[in-house]
Design goal:
Tetracycline Repressor, domain 2; 0% strand; Arc Repressor Mutant, subunit A; 10 helices; mainly alpha; 2 domains
Length: 203
């Protein structure tokens, strides 16, 4: 196995375990067993467990960014529909895992933000990048006249992330996607209702 592939395999193995049981409860031995690599390989690529955790976050964020790009750059659809499709695709992924795993970044935010400043800063950057992606799409929706100019794309983007992550937590507890779908329906059908619906009196 190539060095790059081995490192990626260790990260993927650790990400799956951390997503299920948290960072502090995840032991290096469990990661090595899952990745089927010797202990020396772990410390060859990662000087500490913390650096490994930060690498897991980077890998996770790259994956999410790819999902966002695949939906939000699709110019065959309107900006608002792109954004809704993107968020609904995340709900579908959550359902595949039986509503049990949640968002790795949010999970680690709850666990590690007060324990490690390095973790907190990385998580803050990840969340800010997500908000920026949403904001850009919402700005395009305003430019095309799809949503009202009275709405603040920055505020809406922050609210979308905060509301989605909160609904995700409740969905995880309830083992049901209903809180997530309810939030998205309220956000897209009421808060940022397309202008043509308002103009037709369908408020």
């Amino acid at each position: 196995m190539a060095a790059k592939d081995k490192k990626t395999e260790i990260i993927k193995a650790g990400m799956g375990i951390i997503a299920r049981q948290g960072f502090n409860s995840t032991g290096i031995d469990a990661i090595l067993k899952q990745a089927n690599v010797p202990k020396g390989s772990f410390y060859h690529y990662f000087p500490s467990k913390q650096q490994f955790g930060l690498s897991v976050l980077d890998h996770f964020a790259v994956g999410i960014d790819r999902i966002f790009a695949s939906f939000l750059a699709d110019e065959t659809k309107s900006p608002l529909n792109r954004l809704r499709d993107c968020m609904e695709s995340l709900v579908a992924r959550f359902e595949i895992n039986n509503c049990s795993i949640g968002c790795l970044a949010a999970n680690l935010g709850q666990e590690m933000a007060d324990q490690s400043e390095e973790f907190r800063q990385k998580l803050a950057n990840i969340f800010q990048n997500w908000i920026a992606s949403f904001e850009k799409c919402l700005e395009e929706a305003q430019e095309t006249g799809e949503i009202s100019d009275a709405l603040s794309p920055a505020a809406l983007a922050g609210f979308l992330l905060a509301g989605f992550e909160g609904a995700l937590l409740i969905s995880k507890v309830n083992k049901s996607p209903e809180p997530l779908t309810n939030f998205l329906n309220l956000f897209f059908d009421t808060l940022v209702k397309p202008l043509e619906l308002i103009g037709n009196g369908k408020e």
